[in-house]
Amino acid sequence: MAARVPFPDPARPLSHGEDVMGRRIVVAMSGGVDSSATAALLKEEGWDVVGVTLQLYDHGQAVGRANSCCAGKDIHDARRVADRLGIPHYVVDYESTFRQDVIERFADSYVAGETPIPCVLCNQTVKFRDLFGIARDLGAEALATGHYVRREETPSGVHMLRGADHGRDQSYFLFATTRDQLDFLRFPLGSMGSKDETRAIARRFELPVAVKPDSQDICFVPDGDYAGLVERLRPGAIEAGDIVHVDGRVLGRHEGIIHYTVGQRRGLKLGGGPPLYVIRLEAAARRVVVGPKEALGRSAVALSGVNWLGEAEVEAEAEAEAEAREWAVQVKIRSTREPVPAMLRLGPAGSADVRFLHPEEGVAPGQACVFYDGERVLGGGWIRRDGNPQNL
């Protein structure tokens, strides 16, 4: 057996001082190395671990899919890990719910000219709504996942922090987690310094998935052909239209706006000339608007569906005042980017406005804008069209 790998910070065990011996915790097991290592660490710490895997695809069709989560092979891998650890393991069929809450909304968003993020929807619905109910039905006191974020208990409540390894930080995809959900959640891998540490833990426990590759792309589109999926789900909704320069000139034709995304340069097929980029998509008019790189910059965005994890009085103030205060924050509009400085103004009914201190490129409706105060996650919302075509 490999040498024992210590926790990243031995002074801070996973339970942060909790007496966990014999207390039940459900681990969301996708069949990958992250959730498998999570289950192993929690069992070692003394929790009564129960593994639950959500089946999100038809088992017969999913078995052969590589690099996707919650499919047939991954369910088999999760079961093998549970057997190795000696913990109970349940598979729950949520295929119809996943299709309705995630896949169908993904398709509708693409048809509307947006850039959807289905991983957030999945966490918001199937995983952090339905899986919570399963965990409570099983008598669990907490639900653990393999996400790379940190959870910190403070006198003012539980905070979500970015993962210690910023290269693997997944807080962008968890901005919609509510305060009540955060109370119930545990993230054992959030303090890991790298993925190598996680794989070393899997090797130490001799888990069969220790060298399994990470999943790639969107789980239900393992081949990366998003447009092909949307065409199958929304036949007849894909219509040709014009490719138009920001100055109004018609430059060519396209076969459907689903084949384009804001910031795209390749695949425009417009011939020679200066480089052009997709600036915005006008779904109602079936137009793809292109322009020079400098036209990609946006100075502000409007948000809807905001989830606020900061101080409660700030949210209350926003609901009560017609002119809420601006707050200096850092924001991310893409999961792979580092947060940038911005000013945030929360509004009523889950709205917000964000003003970037420096123009941001590649801003698209349907994406998330997530707020940070240093390492702390303050929440986030969905970028929406604000009615001004010069903006989005």
Automatic annotation (TrEMBL):
Span of the signal peptide: none
Cystine pairs: C122-C219
Gene Ontology cellular component terms for the protein in this record: cytoplasm
EC number per UniProt: 2.8.1.13
GO BP terms in the entry: tRNA wobble position uridine thiolation
Keywords: ATP-binding, Cytoplasm, Disulfide bond, Nucleotide-binding, RNA-binding, Transferase, tRNA processing, tRNA-binding
Compartments where found: Cytoplasm
Site (Interaction with tRNA): H147, Q367
Pfam family, one: tRNA_Me_trans
EC primary class: transferase
Annotated positions binding ATP: A28, M29, S30, G31, G32, V33, D34, S35, L54, G146
Main location: cytoplasm
Gene3D superfamilies per UniProt: Adenine nucleotide alpha hydrolases-like domains, HUPs, Translation factors
Sequence ranges assigned to domain tRNA-specific 2-thiouridylase MnmA-like C-terminal in this UniProt record: 305-383
GO molecular function, one term: tRNA-uridine 2-sulfurtransferase activity
tRNA-specific 2-thiouridylase MnmA-like central domain span: 239-291
Catalytic residues (positions): C122, C219
Keyword Disulfide bond: yes
Stated family: Belongs to the MnmA/TRMU family.
Job of this protein: Catalyzes the 2-thiolation of uridine at the wobble position (U34) of tRNA, leading to the formation of s(2)U34.
Xref: NCBIfam families: PRK00143.1, trmU
Protein name (Swiss-Prot/TrEMBL): tRNA-specific 2-thiouridylase MnmA
Organism: Telmatospirillum siberiense
